[in-house]
Structure formats: structure tokens, C-alpha cells
Amino acid sequence: MIDHFGINCVHWEESKSFYDKVLGVLGYTRQMDFEAAIGYGADGHPSFWIGDASVGDVSGPNREMHLAFVAKDAESVQAFYRTALALGAEPLHEPRMWPEYHDNYYGAFVRDPEGNNVEAVFHGGGPDVSGPPV
């Protein structure tokens, strides 16, 4: 169900050191590092992210949390996005390929009613170009 999630850290340098060490003893390492966001996990799959809370749009006392749900296929990512928008969710990123994450990463992002960044992701690539539009 849960593919990955992320939290934001006010004490960025201290948090990086903390998670490097405590997750390291559990066998997890940095899988991706975008300077303002670091993904920890194993075998090339970052499943826990920390983000620098001082970077980006901060609205309110706490910055949004990020939560990504596993989708069974690209069509499910599209259905997630359409359903969320029909329910009044704010669109963040329509369904598309995200090659900066990996070659077959297909995801869509919305803001939930509480202001969190919620995603559906399929790791098997996008829809067939002859398939139905988003």
C-alpha cells in the first residue's frame, strides 16, 4: 500500500546526521540525494525521505507531509488523479513519467484536504501512447 513517505526537518544538518546513523545500523542508506531532500532505503528504492523544511513554499507552522501509495498500473495512477480532482483536491502534478526518479516511474500528485502532498505511483512505466488520455 505505502510506496514511500517523507517528513520535513527544521534542523536539517542535525537530521541528516541522525538519520544517516540510526538508519545505517538498520541496514538502510541514502539511495537518492537531491541536497534539499534525501531518500533512504535499500536496493535502489528510497522508501523514507527527509526534506529541508527551509526550502520551498512553507504555508503555516508545519510544511506538508508527502505520502505515496502504490498503484497496480498506469491507469490506476490516472484514476487516482481524476478521482482526487473530482473530490476537490488541488492538482500538484498530473500523471506523467518521472525519469529523475527512475526510467519507469509514473506518478501523479495532489494536495489532500489537510494540505499534504499525496501521490499514486506505478513503477512499471506510463500508459501506452495509443491508450486513453489522462
TrEMBL record:
InterPro entries: Glyas_Bleomycin-R_OHBP_Dase, Glyas_Fos-R_dOase_dom, VOC_core. Pfam families: Glyoxalase (PF00903). Residues 1-123 form the VOC domain. It comes from the Bacteria. This is Glyoxalase. It comes from Mycolicibacterium obuense. The lineage of its organism: Bacteria, Bacillati, Actinomycetota, Actinomycetes, Mycobacteriales.
